[in-house]
Design brief:
alpha/beta; globular; binds NADP nicotinamide-adenine-dinucleotide phosphate; 7-stranded parallel sheet
Length: 323
Amino acid sequence: MLILLKNYECLVLDVIGIGFVLFIIYADADLTLLFYHSLNRPRDFRNKVVWITGASSGIGEYLAYDLVKAGAKLVLSGVNVERLTAVGERCKEVSSCAAEDILLVPFQINNFDVHDDVVNKVLDHFGHIEYLVNNAGISQRADFADIDIAVDHQLFDVNVFGPVNLTRKVLRHFLERKKGHVVVTSSTAGKLGAPYSSAYTGSKHALHGYFECLRSEMVEENIHVTLVCPGPVFSNITDRCVTGKIGEKYDHKQQPTDKKMKTERCSDLMVTAIAYKLDECWICFQPILFMYYMAQYLPSVFRTLIVKFIFNRQRVMKMRQGR
Ligand SMILES: NC(=O)c1ccc[n+]([C@@H]2O[C@H](COP(=O)([O-])OP(=O)(O)OC[C@H]3O[C@@H](n4cnc5c(N)ncnc54)[C@H](OP(=O)(O)O)[C@@H]3O)[C@@H](O)[C@H]2O)c1
């Protein structure tokens, strides 16, 4: 009996050990998301109206392609009308949607005065909205001490107050319909302090504060909130990354050899998170994924070991640039 029990314990330990090694080598998202993604069920967005901000490039662009293939009707927002038009045309090519199933609504997310008008424009066209994907955003790099307060304002206007204000407008419609789903593209920087990006990190942490509250307030309303936290992903984000001075661009060119996730993969995982209404998901390669787990479940070990002994400037910069 004792020998049988010991064998059973060894087996359990072996399975846990093998599982951990596989996780360290292959996992590119948190285990809940990977579990749902591995079910490989069709994600059905037929006739659902999905509004994506930041749809003119990067993650938002690929989300548009995945969602339109899954049957969604799309509202595509961004600033660059030429890019937005090209994304709209590609959506029609990759799916069998009708021309009127794609609506382009270009606007600056930080121009709060137009939010009522753009919501009305979407409702006039489609009559309803099922999903609002708050994805538009900009990044920032500079030492904490070197950041002008104007840059903090810029980051918060685009990354936080824009999505928050737009969501409030759409929420009225969701509450009337007694259903809706708000998706927010946060970041690793929304969960961990990403060094040398404090304005960006502050803005992404703020999103969690606002949208965690919204989720709690909506538990009885059939309105869902999904916070998506990607690590480094190929997109245009580094090309327009700002510094600590207003109007200054961060001097860094993304390379195809960078260790970043393919935009398609990030979008694919994100669609699963949306389809299964996950509250939060983490999408990134190791070792950042492991850090998420440490910071969430063993915060003292994360701060005393990982932050103190592993986070030096050179390593952090390399990790953030996918090098
Ligand atoms: N790529 C990454 O490594 C990474 C990692 C974690 C989180 N994220 C987050 O993912 C989201 C999408 O970024 P991305 O990586 O796909 O970068 P991206 O290729 O630069 O896309 C950013 C999108 O946001 C739009 N946008 C920027 N400023 C705007 C403004 N003031 N008003 C309206 N739209 C605006 C852009 O529109 P225009 O092009 O038309 O100006 C573009 O469509 C962001 O929230 C970002 O923080 C990215």
